[in-house]
Amino acid sequence: VTTLSQIAQFVTSPSRKSSTKRVRSSWSR
């Protein structure tokens, strides 16, 4: 399980823009 802090970092990371979409999809679950 990912913590909110980790998710926030992923979303804030511009280089992980592609990963952000993936994380958001998983977060929806």
Automatic annotation (TrEMBL):
Name by which UniProt lists this protein: Complex1_LYR_dom domain-containing protein
Record organism: Caenorhabditis elegans
